[in-house]
Amino acid sequence: MKIVMLSVMMPAVENIRGTSALPYHLLAGRDKSIEVILYSYNLNRLSKVQIDSVAKELNIKIHLLPVPWWYNFVLRFLLPFRIFLKNPIGNYISLSTVQLDIIGKENADGIWIYGEELSCVSNQLKDFKRVHTLPDCESLYYYRMLGKRFVMRDKMRYWKSVFVFPKYLRMERLFDISSNIHYHLVGEADVDFLKEINPGIQAHFLRHPHYQLANPAKVISFSSKIKLLIAGQYNLYMQQDADELINCLCSSRCTEDLKEHYVITFLGKGWDTHVRHLEEAGYEVHHIRFAPNYIEEIIKHDIQITPISIGTGTKGKVLDAIANGLLVIGSWYALENIAVEHGVSCLQYRTVDEVISMLRKIYLCPSHYEEIAQSGRKSVLRFHDGELTAQQMFSLLQA
């Protein structure tokens, strides 16, 4: 089978200035009989050396598509102008007659489009079988944002959501619902929301493939002083729950025992204030702003806490942690769309203060929670396998 892929991003083994890892791992997991020719706008700005490396690793041909001059001009000099656009700015990108002619001459069996805003490009290729990987429903993201009290306290963030939400809603309502196009998302709620706003659309939830695995695999055995990890940049997605978690950990009333049994590490930027508060409260704390090898770093730890307050789709760093044998404690947002179950293969809190009692139970009976971590790893390796997900996705082009 011969596939032409059109993408806003250049695939990369990790997310580089955008969601570039998902297409990389779907391509890596495909059947080797599938020939792929990629046409990419390279909005994540990979270098020629990186692009050549990706082409070799994935055994694909890569052609660069020029980013329209007006796109860069608006982003550089006329950002406020986007308010007056009916759709997101990327939705106005289209292929020229020459580009369409070149793609047509590839004689592909199907077209794979990556990036939600390329729906106009998809409409130009109506004669082909198509799979459009979004991978998230952006209108759902902004719908959720507008329902959060902490977003309303950030005026800039709130008004951005107010203006952007109807743009994505309009764009998604206009998605092609022909019989020869399928939409691929990595969120179950994303699919439901998209079907609600665009009835008749062929939208499918497929598990997000996990990324890298440590070699050799981590031996799941908690340290005598259990190593807690909070990974990811401190930003809007973690702000509310992370702040509340640190306040709970610093409470002098009921957390003295936790200081004896846990060492806490932050991996990512923006955690300086939280580190200082925990140190002042008496915890052993470490802060790693950047790890050259992310997987090698996370497997040094026993538990990952993921206090995510908002989002859609699947969280790649949560998948990485579970797949590599860490016990994950997370919010519903952190664990949605991942094939794990609270108390069986992960721990899911409803309110942040529940994390304190969970941590206490863990140090009192570590072997039980090591078994939960083991169960989580088995489940993710089975249901989020890259080859399985790629087979499911590419089979949509044969439907």
Automatic annotation (TrEMBL):
Domain of life: Bacteria
Protein name in UniProt: Glycosyltransferase, group 1 family protein
Organism expressing this protein natively: Prevotella multiformis DSM 16608
Lineage of origin: Bacteria, Pseudomonadati, Bacteroidota, Bacteroidia, Bacteroidales
